[in-house]
Amino acid sequence: MIGWEDIYKVLASMFPLYVALILGYGSVKWWHMFKPDHCDAINQLNCYFIMPLFTFDFTTRVNPYKMNFRFLGADVISKAVIIITISLWAKLSTKGNYPWSITSFSLSTLNNTLVVGVPLIGAMYGPFGENLVIQSSILQFTVWIIILLMMYEFQSVNKSLTNDSTTDDLEGHTEEDAITTRPSLLILIKIVGFKLAKNPNAYACILGLAWALVSNRWDLKMPTIVEGSVLIMSRAGSGVAMFCMGLFMALQPKIIDCGATLTAFGMLLRFVVAPATMAVSSFIMGLRGDVLCIAIIQAALPQAIASFVFAKEYELHTSVLSTAVIFGTIVSIPLLISYYVVLDLLNK
Questions:
Q1: What are 9-20's pLDDT values in tens digits?
Q2: Which of 25, 103, 121, 173 has a C-alpha 20 to 30 A away from that of 215?
Q3: Inter-axis angle of helices 51-60 and 237-251, to 10 degrees?
Q4: Exposure of 257 by Cβ count < 10 A (0-12 exposed, 13-18 middle, 19+ buried)?
Q5: Rounded CA gap, 82 and 70, in Å?
């Protein structure tokens, strides 16, 4: 049975993250210490130096030969169910459309595994829970983000083709002149690969996984000089990431920037649909006990910051994703603790 000491341990692990977030918010909103260009510089530092090493550090701790493949299988099934459901909605519903399919997929699949998930679930379930969350983050970086980027690229191509066609018609060109060939799947994959190459977190995860495979296969230890070089930056990962989120919150005109209806829609997908789908998939894969609880809670983690970055880059429902990241991070703690308590009661 979960006692107050257990809840306090969870709060104690999360409170420092929110201190960093409040400091970031206050440094812009209240104390006017940073201008927007300063915030951009801090975000660049976090994106290109701290977070990649933070991701690499955690990924190297996983033993790929002892991964919980039933847990990962449940994650794959849950995401596949979400993709199929969204696709059917886009095809069959009169209100369904491709742009909202992309946003719905992002809201229901991408969560903040490392920055929030590792300390939170580590406090709840110890190193075993941390290890499963890191495994989930590897799958997210190597599969789900790639799928999301491909969806964005398809949308971008369709949008550009539509604009080209409209421009041609207005200029009075013939229909033959307005015809544009769609790029092949190979070209889209190359575009996505190029964008992933610009995202250091993607190959930091891949490099970390490669080292984990080699080191666990031949029982190698990372050289102390390399380990120290990684740790000196990665130790700042959680704090700086939350500080940057505070900066981002302060720069937005409103915390809820997309209206109450869309905010509720985003929260429903993130905190209800995602964990419910994961729960069903986990039962299908035969997960029980703490593994089942961890699977459900990690699926209900707040929205990944990367999802907003991609939405902003492709200019698609940016306000919805920014609200999901900001508001979702704020309300996630009581929700996740509630999940923790309820699942513990059901698990007895």
A1: 888 888 898 899
A2: 121
A3: 140
A4: middle
A5: 18
Lowest mean pLDDT among 102-106, 248-252, 260-264, 286-290: 248-252
Q: For the chain, what is the total number of helices (H) and then of strands (E)?
A: 17, 0
Among candidates 346, 275, 298, 333, which has minimal Cα distance to 1? 346
| Predicted structure pTM score | 0.86
- CB-hemisphere CA count at 13 Å for 298? 33
Query: Which has the minimum average pLDDT: 22-26, 164-168, 218-222, 294-298?
Result: 164-168
Map out the domains of the chain with their CATH numbers: 4-347 (1.20.1530)
CB-based burial of residue 105 (10 Å sphere; 0-12 exposed, 13-18 middle, 19+ buried)? buried
251's CB contacts (< 8 A; 6+ apart) are 28, 36, 39
Distance (Å, whole) CA 336 – CA 10: 10
Token pair in block for residue 9: 């341990």
Q: In angstroms, rounded to a whole number, what is the distance separating the alpha carbons of residues 308 and 220?
A: 38
